[in-house]
Amino acid sequence: MNRLTDKELIKELENRFSENDKALKELNALTSQLTTLNKHLEESEAMKSHFLSNIRNEIINPFAAIIGLSSSLINSDNYGPDQIKHILSLIFSEAFHLDFQLQNIFAAAEIEAGEVALQINKVDVYSVIEQTVSSFQHMADKNKIKLSLQNTIEKTNDSTSFLTDQLKFQIILKNVISNAIQYSHADSEVKIITEFTSQMLTVTVKDNGIGIAKEEEKLIFDRFKKADSNINTLNKGHGLGLSVCNDYLEFMNGSIYLESSPGNGSTFIIKIPVSSESGNQNTLASDGNIFLFEEGELF
């Protein structure tokens, strides 16, 4: 066996030290990545628990109210017509809220699973917007809010037809209107302004409510965070609505913009381009999902 010269031996040692140093750096980098991933998983687990707790409340509370109110009607013979009408109004309000929140929950589940399928059909934009706004009149009356629909769309036989996913469009519109009503001051006005061309539908929802700080604007589109906990404790909801809007609009090649400042209300501008073809279009989520659920759970 040939003996190494001192120079060769030093070179060999330097190479081995270099390889060991490289391996140590790679190990440290991997350890850092695992630490970060573990932190994300812990945060995800905490968010999941908090999120599911809110979801359960959003389902259980309306059901409990509906059962209690219905039971009082069944078991009492002393209610007059006005009392019966009032109780039925409360039942309707709770049922409407429950149906609305379930739509958001199922939409979020669909998005999380990456299984969004667009059902593109010719939609009568005029009728859909008018009916959707009308469905929130009882909620607006309860909150002493005036709903104002400023429709620039002329109602003719075919001029209001638009290729889009009607159900997802309605969910988007419902969430923005609901949000505007919830965060508006009593005796104020929520304006819904529509503009329509052959290629683009624009819906602007403007309120005179509490407004949103610039640094919190991104949070309102996060499915598992809510912008101001002090504000949100005054209102129903689990924070899904605007995130569902944002995700659905992304799948529909649309967009949503926010103009707001604290104390000066908020303006949401929704833009949806006409779809190129009718029928079913399967779409996958582009972002990775770190909000993890065990097999068999809702999400």
Descriptive overview:
There is one protein chain. The protein is of the alpha+beta class. The chain has a domain at 119-283: Heat Shock Protein 90. The protein has helices at residues 6-75, 81-112, 125-135, 137-142, 166-182, 229-232, 241-251, and strands at 116-124, 145-151, 161-165, 188-196, 200-206, 255-260, 266-273, 279-283. It has a five-stranded mixed β-sheet with strand order 2-4-5-7-6. The protein has a three-stranded antiparallel β-sheet with strand order 3-1-8. Helix 2 (81-112) crosses helix 7 (241-251), helix 3 (125-135) runs parallel beside helix 5 (166-182) and helix 5 (166-182) packs antiparallel against helix 7 (241-251). The longest helix is centred in the first third of the chain and has 70 residues, at 6-75. The termini are far apart.
Features:
single chain; 299 residues; alpha+beta; Heat Shock Protein 90; 3-stranded antiparallel beta sheet; elongated
Q: Layout of helices and strands, plus pairs?
A:
Elements: H1 6-75, H2 81-112, E1 116-124, H3 125-135, H4 137-142, E2 145-151, E3 161-165, H5 166-182, E4 188-196, E5 200-206, H6 229-232, H7 241-251, E6 255-260, E7 266-273, E8 279-283
Parallel strand pairs: 2-4
Antiparallel strand pairs: 1-3, 1-8, 4-5, 5-7, 6-7
Helix pairs in contact: 1-2, 2-7, 3-5, 5-7
Short description:
The protein is α+β, with helices and mostly antiparallel strands. The protein is built from seven helices and eight strands; from the N terminus they run ααβααββαββααβββ.
Strand order of the largest sheet: 2-4-5-7-6
CATH topology of the domain at 119-283: Heat Shock Protein 90
Count of DSSP strands = 8
Q: Tell me about the biggest sheet? A: 5 strands, mixed
Count of alpha and pi helical runs? 7
In CATH terms, what is the architecture of the domain at 119-283?
Answer: 2-Layer Sandwich
The rounded Rg comes to: 27 Å
How much of the polypeptide forms β-strand, as a percent range?
15-25%
Task: Give the SSE string.
Answer: HHEHHEEHEEHHEEE
> Structural class of the helix and strand makeup?
alpha+beta
- Based on Cα principal axes, name the global outline: elongated
Distance between the termini: 66 Å
Poorly predicted residue ranges = 227-238, 284-296
CATH superfamily descriptor of the domain at 119-283? Histidine kinase-like ATPase, C-terminal domain
**What is the average of the pLDDT values?**
81
Quickly name the level 1 CATH class of the domain at 119-283.
Alpha Beta
Percentage of helical residues? 40-55%
